């Protein structure tokens, strides 16, 4: 199927909204992949037409790196028995864990906005798998996440970060962060399909993101936190992802944090992906 056949030609409103096709039949894997590819291209063309949508992926890693390294690096690094250089090596793998969460929030807002404009209603009238529309969104956002991660790593190396493990360890940390980020995107897609406005999705996303990010080991070691907060960080998936990325890049205990992160990834995807696809089919 060509990209043109998947691109809506008009924006329906009110009673003119297209009705979803429920009897879509069984779509083979090959056709499903073709549909995903066409939808990915459609989403990439949207980014090309609106390059400002890449500002968060381009600027966020730069701002966060400079802010935390030069504002908190001296004090936090000193408490770790080193200085700003040691904190840089600690921070960058942690920020890799954060990239997926922040990029994921944009997925929910985008899905919500597409429904409000009637774009998704057009897609639901087409003989394509409902999951292909959502998977295409995730593929494009993973691409944006990879751009943000590469910029983050470039900033880290430019400021003097020292990779203490092999390049394979670095690639493993990137792959683990991408897998967990894709799982989190299903949560925000479901939020985007449930909440009434994109602003509501962003507001709810911040309520979820702030405690998870700052109540974790992303920015600072957890040993000085109160006991109850340390218990929270032990079960916080972002802490386990950050610790796994550090172990892969800088060395240290690896198995537990990697297995816990993979467990969270599988559970979140297995629960949220079917719920999101079902909500997509039924949303009026």
Automatic annotation (TrEMBL):
Primary subcellular site in the record, as a coarse category: membrane
Ranges that cross the membrane: 57-78, 90-112, 133-161, 167-193, 200-220, 254-277
Domain of life: Bacteria
Domain ABC transmembrane type-2: 52-283
Compartmental location: Cell membrane; Membrane
Entry-linked InterPro entries: ABC2_TM, ABC2_TM_bact-type, ABC_2_transport, Nod_factor_ABC_transporter
Listed Pfam families: ABC2_membrane (PF01061)
Protein name: Transport permease protein
Lineage: Bacteria, Bacillati, Actinomycetota, Actinomycetes, Kitasatosporales
Family: Belongs to the ABC-2 integral membrane protein family.
Taxonomic source organism: Streptomyces pulveraceus
PROSITE patterns per UniProt: ABC_TM2
């Amino acid at each position: 199927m060509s990209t043109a056949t998947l691109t809506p030609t008009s924006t329906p409103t009110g009673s003119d909204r297209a009705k979803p096709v429920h009897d879509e039949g069984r779509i083979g894997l090959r056709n499903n992949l073709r549909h995903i590819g066409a939808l990915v291209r459609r989403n990439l063309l949207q980014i090309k037409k609106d390059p400002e949508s890449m500002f968060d992926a381009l600027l966020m890693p730069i701002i966060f790196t400079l802010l935390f390294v030069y504002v908190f690096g001296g004090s936090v690094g000193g408490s770790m028995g080193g200085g700003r250089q040691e904190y840089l090596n600690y921070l960058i793998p942690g920020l890799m864990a954060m990239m997926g969460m922040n990029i994921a929030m944009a997925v929910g807002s985008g899905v919500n906005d597409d429904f409000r404009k009637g774009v998704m209603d057009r897609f639901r009238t087409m003989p394509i798998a409902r999951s292909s529309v959502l998977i295409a969104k995730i593929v494009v956002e993973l691409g944006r996440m990879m751009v943000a991660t590469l910029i983050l790593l470039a900033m880290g190396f430019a400021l003097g970060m020292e990779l203490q493990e092999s390049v394979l360890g670095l690639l493993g940390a990137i792959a683990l962060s991408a897998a967990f980020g894709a799982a989190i995107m299903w949560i925000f897609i479901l939020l985007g399909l449930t909440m009434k406005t994109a602003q509501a999705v962003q507001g709810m996303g911040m309520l979820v993101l702030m405690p998870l990010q700052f109540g974790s080991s992303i920015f600072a070691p957890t040993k000085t936190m109160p006991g109850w907060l340390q218990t929270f960080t032990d079960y916080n998936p972002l802490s386990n992802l950050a610790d796994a990325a550090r172990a892969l890049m800088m060395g240290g205990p690896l198995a537990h944090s990697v297995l816990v992160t993979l467990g969270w990834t599988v559970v979140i995807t297995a629960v949220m992906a079917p719920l999101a696809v079902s909500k997509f089919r039924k949303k009026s």
